[in-house]
Amino acid sequence: GNVGTVHDTECDSEGWIQVRWDHKPSTTANYRVQSHRDLVKLSHQELCPGTKCPKGHLLKLFTTHSDSFTCDAPTCKVEQPIRTNMYGCRECNFDLCKKCNANRDGYDNSPTTAAKRNAEAAEKKRQETEAAAENALAARKWCGDFTTKFMRVAREAADCAEIDLPKVVQKISDLERELANAPKGVQLPFKNEHQEKCVRLY
Q: How wide is the angle at C-alpha 119 spanned by C-alphas 100 and 115, nearest 5°?
């Protein structure tokens, strides 16, 4: 192939063969081959694209010998099954799955990409903080408006004539429905307290 040569011509009982890289004879890895098409596909793969660990060590292709390996890319963190091809740095115990290694944006520790990733993370955090502040402000406003409505209905319930009871009961029911659909930022104690107050109004 263009990057590797079959080292073991005999497959084991499960179809695994060993491949030695032309440009690095001391480096080998195991691949599972079930047909001639798999060999053709294997010979055209970019098997060693030169990704590095966070400390700058070149990652080496290897095959997992157990199911305890996990991809260390920040956006992945997926556990890998046994006999899976990964790229790793044993000195730093840093490993990437095949997909994250091929996708340079998945984990690229160059200064430019690292700065971009940090800027994106900071911007995401800023947006989340702003959204949380907006949600809290909206929740406080909702609680204030609801309390005003509740006080008004409570006065009507206390002063209403018997003939007006159905209307007041409907208003209490509307309050309960509105309370059940309160915005996410409304605290549970507030909801429970006013739910009990609505029940007492009946």
A: 65
Q: Which of the 8 DSSP states describes residue 35?
A: S
Q: Does residue 43 contact residue 33 with C-beta atoms inside 8 Å?
A: no
pLDDT tens for 110-119 read 566 667 777 8
Name the percent of the chain in helix, strand, coil, to the closest 5. 45, 20, 35
Give, in order, the Cα–Cα distances in Å from 195 to each of 72, 87, 119, 142, 175.
47, 57, 45, 15, 9
Half-sphere exposure of 11 (CA within 13 A, CB side): 12
106, 99 in Cβ contact below 8 A? yes
- Side chain identity at 65, as an amino acid letter? H
Strand partners, 20: 5, 28
Higher pLDDT, 164 or 168: 168
DSSP 8-state assignment for residue 5: E
Condensed to tens digits (0 to 9), the pLDDT of residues 26-47 reads 444 554 455 544 544 444 343 3
